[in-house]
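For the sake of transparency, this paper describes our internal protein records without simplification. The remainder of this section carries one protein's record, kept here as part of the documentation:
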Amino acid sequence: MRVLDELGRLAELAEGQLGSFTEAQAASYGVSPDTLAELRRAGVCEEVSSVPGVLRLCAGGRHPFPRVFARWLALAPEQPAWTRAVPETGVVVGNSAAHVHGAGGLPQNHTEFGLADTGAVTAGPGVVLTRTVLEPDEWTLVQGLPVTRPGRTFADIATGPGVDLTDVEKLATAFLLTGAADKAELAAGIDRHLRRNGLAGDGRAWLDDLLAGADDAPVSPEGPGGHGTR
């Protein structure tokens, strides 16, 4: 009965996180390490994408981006997802956000999270923390996962250091073809970046030049691509 009682509490916890939970959360719900080990041996729960300390109930739901979601849970392992203050506890940004939005993004093996205070959490394996200041309308939830909206995501990638113009064009095209964003949203993201960094330019004109394959579409401090703080 003890194991069943603890399994019931674990199921209650996991239900609010698409079947996933951290070991620290399980402990706060009264699930003992011995019970957790027993459930793992029985195949009732398993590790999520080799993210240390994050498990899922095998009969529970599965997040469409399990590794990204597990790494986000691990940023604040004691806090259930529904109690977290966002964006203070981390938002998926950059190429990782593009991936979540279905627009691909540049190849990478890590997950990038943005926080106003990168010292507030500890980055685990495969996690990169970036100092990021977000307005309330610059992020959204995707299956319970906080992610920068397409316009902000595109602007962050397009204005990053050493970015290739061809890759930026491919990213913009992917956002448009998948319907994740329209030209107005992508251009607005660039315009916000310009204002945030005190730069001159027109996001829509730059985007039109980019998509037209113009060789002089600028990604530089003088154009939309200034490398100021996100």
